[in-house]
Amino acid sequence: MLYEKQLVLLLVLAGIASGLIREVHDVEELTGKKFIKYRASSDVEEEMYTPLEEKDPKFWYDLAYEEIAERLKLPQPSAKRAKNVILFLGDVMSLSTVTAARILKGQRRGNTGEESLLSFDRFSHTGLSRTYCSNAQVADSACTATAYLCGVKANLFEIGVSAAVSYNNCTESQKPENRLTSIAEWAQNAGKSTGIVTTTSLTHASPSGAYAKTANRQWECDTDVESFGVDSSKCVDMATQLITQTPGKHFDIMFGGGMGKFLPKSLKDLHGNPGERSDGVNLLSRWQAEHPGGVVVFNRKQLLSANVSAVSSILGLFQSKLMQFHLDADATYQPTLSELTEVTINKLSQNKNGYFAFIEGGLIDYGNHFTKAGYALDETLEFEKAIKMAREMTDIEDTLIVVTADHGHTLSIAGYPGRGTPILGLNQHQTDLNGVKYAVLNYAAGPKNYQDENGQRIDLSDQIGGDDFVFPSYINTNQGVHSGEDVGIYASGPQSHLFSGVMQQHTIPHLMAYAACIGNGPKVCDIN
Q1: Span 139-161, mean pLDDT?
Q2: Which of 82, 388, 397, 479 is the most buried (most CB within 10 A)?
Q3: How many CB atoms lie within 10 A of CB 432?
Q4: 206 catalytic per annotation
Q5: Buried b / exposed e along 400-412 (16+ C-beta atoms within 10 A)
Q6: Catalytically annotated residue among 94, 119, 129, 141
Q7: Residue 334 pLDDT > 90, yes or no?
Q8: Could you read off the pLDDT of 102-136 as tens digits, one per residue?
């Protein structure tokens, strides 16, 4: 048993050492229950309760409209309409992650760190988002994406469908009454341009909330669907949905990783790795045929060379799977999130009717899952750079920018370290009961406990400090886990005052729609 645990840990850590980011969002690791592929089953959710009324999307729409109405009872400082809306999503950007990143930013500049500010700390209005799912206290990125992009809370692992759908149930996911629309589609219906950007993959849970309808977040290509015992001709995989269905096929911008999900196994992708599809379909060729004025790019040079005025749309796939951590990436090959953001805004802003953009710092999540806080915090700082660029590139009078997270993580800032204590180091001012200093940052659960044969904590003085250090955890698990506390919301621009206070996460897209006068709900334009 000890050997098996050591082997699992070595495999976890080897994923980053090799430059490949290991997928961490599988059912067994998130629930503790093993899901047998090739067999449709609801075992994962058998002990998870969903209130009956919450299975109806109308319940969530009505609740969101109530929260908007309560805010409108207060004095309204502005009646301006948002021509453009940008939603920045920091995946697993808990409040502790924000605080630690802020400190690291200052310390990288030679300061004590605590006095530093992130770009979105300067936004005029802040609030808190309640992140629970319909059937879970602690969320994953699928049910939360459904909330902050579709305006309805859903069950774990499911995207773009209501809580009436059971996990991996193809039939239920196809019923029209269970299928949701996203704010991206609302924006398209209003004549606006749309785009999705992520540092993970285009078929990952968060960006998929803008376009996908699926009972399993892992149905990224047909091979994945079939591996779960489901007929991929009846339940269309997410990559195919993105390329062939509304609203995905109408996106003007699609930037991320995951090229393999779009190509057959018989072909190598543009990064030199084989495709993952079993149906023989080349979705990139299909997209190009449907978008003759569009262009496919796969590296930084191509991205920055693209003439946004001369092309109708841009599809960028910058890695075969997930994009690489900023700290590990070849800066000449993989574009930064700021560069992706700049091209996105330059392209989408050409539409006189405005635009909606979803931009995700998705690898904050992976850094925290690996309990490598140095990676998580660096990804957070790359995220805040992109937000700073977006605010500087846009007019605060007509562009609403909302920054939030999907859920938290168990990262903590512990003890009473003095001002200027290295945030990635040891607390130099306190020890445990055995006189051993402990790390400033710790995780509730993770792969490294750092104990000796007697179960006592060991001194980490000669190990801690590097960006790739695996931080201590108190519960021994294969990876770090999500947490259920509220996450921050930061807003700037027209109607940003409405994003103050505590709100349900699914109210966020309804508030953005209110500000932009899109969708079928209340709109600021109705008041003017």
Answers
A1: 98
A2: 82
A3: 11
A4: no
A5: bbbbbbbbbbbbb
A6: 141
A7: yes
A8: 999 999 999 999 999 999 999 999 999 999 999 99
